[in-house]
Every structure is written in C-alpha cells, then in structure tokens.
Task: structure prediction
Amino acid sequence: MRVGVAMRPPLATWSSRLAGLAARLLIAFAFYAAALELGGSIGLVGAVGSPIGLALLGASGLLFLGAAVCAGLAAGPRGLRAARALVLSGLGLSVAALPASLAFRTGGTVAVGEGQTLEPDALQGLPALRFGSVALAPRGPHVLSKTVEIEAEPEGGEPVRIGLFPPTAVAGWRLSVFRFGYAVAVGWAQRSPAPLVDGYVMLGTFPHTAEEAALVTWTPEPNVMMGAGTFPPKLEDLLTPPRSGAHLFLRLEEATIGGKRRDLRDPDAYRWLVDGRLEGAVFHVEALQGKEKLFEGRLRAGESATYPGGAITLGPDVLLWVDLLGTRDPWLAVLGAGLALLAGGVALRSVLAVVGLVRRQAARRT
Result:
C-alpha cells in the first residue's frame, strides 16, 4: 500500500451515505410541513409547493438518484445491486417529480353542455371537442358510488368518455368531470320585443350580488357532504341580464327520474338526482323588473306564459351540463415511472430473499 494516499470508500459506502442524507432531508421536510400546518394551517400541498419544500424534496430526490448510480456500479451480487438501484432510483424520481409536478403543472375548468362544441385552445393545446350526451347512474365503476360521464369527440380523433375518475387523456390533457347540472332552453322578453334571454340556461352558473339574491326566496342548502360543493347540482338560479334591471328566477320543483315522480323540493331530493335524467320537469318561475314582481307561477318544460309586458317560454327537455377539470402535467409520467421502479425493486428484492431462503433450507437438508 502506498503511504500517504487515502483509500477511497467503496461505491456501496457512497450509496449508503447518499441515501442516508436523502432520508434526513425527507425527515427535515416532514418537520417543516408539520410546523407549517401547526403554525399557519398550511397543508401538505402548500408545504410541497413552497421554496423550502421544493428545495428539500428536490435535493433529496437527486441524492437518491446518486445513491442509485453508486449502488448499480458497486461490487457485489448482481441481483442485489439491481434491486437496490431500482428502489433508490424509484425513490429519487418519485421524490423529485412530486414538487416539480406541483410547480409546473397547468390546469383549468370549462363548462360544457350536451351537443356543444368546445373551441380549440379553450385549454391551451386542447383541440376542438364536440360533446354528446351525459350519462347518469346511481352506481359507478371502480370504487365510485355514482356515474357522471359525457361523450366527447376530439377533432381528428377517436370518441372518448370523460367521467369522474380516473381522468381521460386527451391531447396531453387529463380531463375529468368536476360537477354537473341542469340546463333548459329559455325564451324571455319583457317590455321590449328584443329577448332578454334566448338560449340554454345552465342552472347554478350565473353570478348575482347579495342585493339581487335577496329579491327571491332560495331553497336551503341540503345537509350533505358529497364532493365538497360539487354535488348535489343546483336546482335553481337567478338571471339578471346586464343593464336591464330585470330578473328571472327558475327553480326545478318536480320531475320523473328513473321512472318515478319526484318532488325536488324535498330536502332529500339529492338522493335521486343520479337515478337518471329529468323528464316531465316542472319549474317555479318568477319574473321581476327591479323589485317589482311581474309574474310568478309554475311552468312545465315546453310550456309558455304571458303577463302584462312580457312572455316566458321553456324548452321541452332538461339537458345536462358538466364542469370539466383539466390538468396537463409532464412530470406525472416521471412520477409514475418512479413508482414503477420502486415497485420493481421491492419485488426483485422479495424474490431474491425467497430464493435465498429456499437455497439455505436445501443446503441444510444436504
């Protein structure tokens, strides 16, 4: 041995050191996330997306990848080296991809109705989509308790069905149904031949001020937590055409759903809303000019009503609309690859352990 020359630690030692340092950074991130939660009610997503969180997780991921390279090049049985390298590389990719995914993903929501066409680039890079019918069912695939999905045909592509979960891949975007609601065709003219409303009205999508909302009586919100505000769908809405001073209030009150006549004013009406489409719907309708109520009554879908200075016509069918949630995340594939490598490494290590155990038992017998 040459005097005065320090021997380099073997690669296996470097792998262990790097993996240990990466694990310490993960522990530091865990304490940091806990402090943010206790001190500022900032959740895990906020901690991951913060500069310190990004730095801790990114550095940890790179250290795990370095440990994987050292493990793969170290001396020792090939199978064990491969298993350790797979586990460490899987950890590295997964840990590094998580903050990158949160930092660089893009997303948005769009509301679309049956029969509508979504223009190109409504979400950047998404082609034109033509939508068909919405399917509702009181049961769902996988672990879901209900089905809400819409047919969609991308321009130049094959038709797809977009549901609640899992998201559907379309042109680099992953689309899923966020919520659904009802739409009815409305023709409404008041004190002028020109219509104030002439088209489909998506209930639950119109903004109004507190002063405007106080003009009518709203149904109490149902005492149910299913989807954190995405369910049940809104059954009423107030339309206030700009610069008109006029207001139109619509509320769904009755309908046949799944072959049964239902009173939608019932506090438990939300239980039936995914049993099927609404047929033979009846609306409560109010028309106002300022604070003056000019008309109040019940109209069946397809009926019309006139009153002094105005007229209202409802379309014969109640259609459905959905809010689509879209996300585009190139790092999601990296995260998936990391989890696959991690699973592969664990599986290989388990197989090697079983093989070693069998060989040792066989050696004892001989």
Remarks:
- Residues 11-105+330-365 form one domain.
- Residues 105 and 330 are 7 Å apart (CA to CA).
